[in-house]
Amino acid sequence: MQSALFNSRIVMLLFSVALLSQSAVADGKNPLKYEDGQVSMRLVLRTPEQLSAFFQGRGFNQAAIERILETCFITPIIHNKTLDAVWLELDNWQFEAGKHPIARITRDYWSGKWREAGLPQAQQSTFGWTLMPEVRDLRLDEGVGGSVVIPMQSQPFTMTANFHTGLDKKGKIKTIVFEGIQCVSNEP
User: For the whole model, what pTM was predicted?
Assistant: First the structure.
């Protein structure tokens, strides 16, 4: 039983890596990228068709997929290039459209949506594995990726990612800003 569970987790991890490694964006441009001597980071945005296909392939029902498509998935892929720890803490990230803050959709939001959609626990767990960890340290040459979710936006927005540094989080704060991000929708 544990072996089957372990194997299914390995398969899910491989599928998640495949989803994260694709670089398709609706307008054909490359994902947004940032790199310096400390950190590299790129953003990938998924089309509704890509999200639908990915979750349909994992047995999600249509009601759950419709709830997913009401939101905007941003997939940051982050790599620490230093000897110092870099701390991913999603509560330290901000999203803004103009001067208006956009609230990030946290993991807690989804349990009610899954109840409404009648989504089985197995698919709920699968969904959780696709999300960016809420808190995580990145050591030398470590990377992490996953989806960060906000409400669907019709206008471009800015994402500011703040990272504490140092094992004790007392190092200099690293800030990376991406401007002009656009949610991908089915609209022309």
Answer: 0.80
